[in-house]
Write a structure and sequence with these properties.
95 residues, mainly alpha
Length: 95
């Protein structure tokens, strides 16, 4: 249960900015480094697939910045899962 603030916000004060979309974009930047960093161990076609998925997630994140800011960290998590799944599947198929 939350308690009311010690002093009320002045009239016309802007709403607090949520840190969630910023965290989601930082997560997507980390996923991009993972995607591009695997260029030395994965075939070029797998890296292109990962970058295409990342661009799609980035476009969705840009569109969702204001209407759905709480969902942006989930996009970064999806990118991480896609990266991990691609690395595992490609390495299993190579053996």
């Amino acid at each position: 249960m939350s308690r009311p603030p010690a002093r009320p916000e002045p009239a016309g004060a802007p709403k607090r900015i949520s840190p969630l979309p910023f965290g989601g974009m930082v997560g997507l930047a980390c996923v991009l480094f993972l995607d591009l960093g695997t260029a030395g161990v994965l075939p070029w076609s797998a890296v292109v697939w990962l970058v295409v998925v990342w661009v799609i997630l980035f476009v969705i994140a840009c569109r969702w910045w204001t209407p759905r800011p709480a969902l942006l960290p989930w996009l970064a998590a999806i990118g991480l899962v896609v990266w991990l799944g691609t690395v595992v599947v490609v390495n299993l198929l190579a053996t």
